[in-house]
Amino acid sequence: MTEQEQAKLNRIKQAIKNEEIKVKDVDINMTKQLADKSLDIVDIDKQLSDTNTIGKRLADKVAQVGGSWGFVITFMVFLIIWMAINVMQLFGLHFDPYPFILLNLALSCISAIQAPIIMMSQNRAGEVDAMTRDNDYKLNQKAEIHLRKQHSKTDHMIRMQHNIAELLIMQIEQDNKKK
Question: Staple 120 to which of 59, 64, 82, 179, CB 3.0 to 4.6 Å?
């Protein structure tokens, strides 16, 4: 083997070793980046149950009931019955004559209490949405890191295969010269 061929052989072997080292570095780097605690996904259900209070559960139940068609229809029936009793004086009752001042007071009180409770439930739903968005962001970050590193690793492996192919060609040429 000539000096020039030996130098080429050494260069190819060194290039293969360098690519192997770079592939290992990519693996180590990817493992470090993926182990970053800031990318840990939060268990939303556990987080919510840890911060769950009686008030929060009550707000969710009130919003669930108050925001349903069943509640709206039942309340409409109640209002119609209330007005019918007081306008027609059914059963001899006439406790809230037209313009239904007592009914207006009751409705105002219900609205004054129900609205902030529903807003509390909406705030809680907003917290869940924020945690979900944060988890999605972290998951996307992890996927991006993984994809970027896999591309880098693939590039190094392709270069290593190219060098191995060059090495094989050289060995085949050497074998042919010997024959």
Answer: 59
The contacts of residue 163 (CB under 8 Å, 6+ apart) are: 12, 15, 16, 19
Determine contact, residues 86/79, Cβ cutoff 8 Å: no
Q: Which residues contact 179 (CB under 8 A, 6 or more apart)?
A: none
Give which of 112, 115, 128 is closest to 67, Cα–Cα.
Answer: 115
Sign of the Cα pseudo-torsion (167, 173, 176, 177, in order): negative
CA distances in angstroms from 151 to 15, 18, 26, 31, listed in the order given? 19, 17, 10, 15
Please tell me whether the overall predicted TM-score, pTM, comes out greater than 0.70 for this model: no
Q: Alpha carbon of 33 to those of 26, 27, 92, 125, 148: distances in Å?
A: 10, 10, 79, 31, 11
pLDDT over 90 at 172, yes or no: no
User: Taking a C-beta distance cutoff of 8 angstroms, is the pair 86, 78 a contact?
Assistant: no
Q: Over the stretch 14-30, which tens digit does the pLDDT of each residue have? A: 888 888 888 888 888 88
What residues have CB less than 8 Å from 44, skipping those under 6 apart?
A: 128, 131, 132, 135
Q: 30: Cβ–Cβ under 8 A, 6 or more apart, which residues?
A: 145, 146, 149, 153
Distance of CA 76 to the CA centre of its chain: 40
